[in-house]
Amino acid sequence: MFNRIDHVGIAVEDIESALPLYRDAFGMDVAHREIVSEQGVEAVLLDVGENHVELLAPLGPDTPVGRFLAKKGPGLHHVAYQVSDIDTALQALKDAGLELIDEQPRVGIRDSRVAFLHPKGTGSVLTEIVEPAVAH
Ligand code: CO
Known about the structure:
Blueprint: E1 4-11, H1 15-25, E2 30-36, E3 41-48, E4 51-58, H2 64-72, E5 75-82, H3 86-95, E6 106-107, E7 113-117, E8 127-131
Parallel strand pairs: 1-4, 5-8
Antiparallel strand pairs: 1-5, 2-3, 3-4, 6-7, 7-8
The structure holds cobalt (II) ion.
């Protein structure tokens, strides 16, 4: 069902403070930067081969990532698997009995279609599936 790991999401307090580690020390190229209002984050994608690290900084304390930071502090936030057809994948995961946060795909970074699974059913790992936009 999953083609590969699309990205690993990492929660940070703010993007500018996080970039020196990933861009400069780790030498990753910044592929994309975007404010994803729907998810309440500013996000940066950095290249690791064909995969990415996704840095997520909250737009405010009352957002999912803002609440995550308040509770757990900065660090690993989610794993995202790439799929070719998110509607089919989401249905298959639902049929497998997994609890979905998103019953329907929504718009993610770079016009991708994304959906999150509830960590309850995934061993406490927040899990995202991503169907990239055709151009990416
Ligand atoms: Co993500």
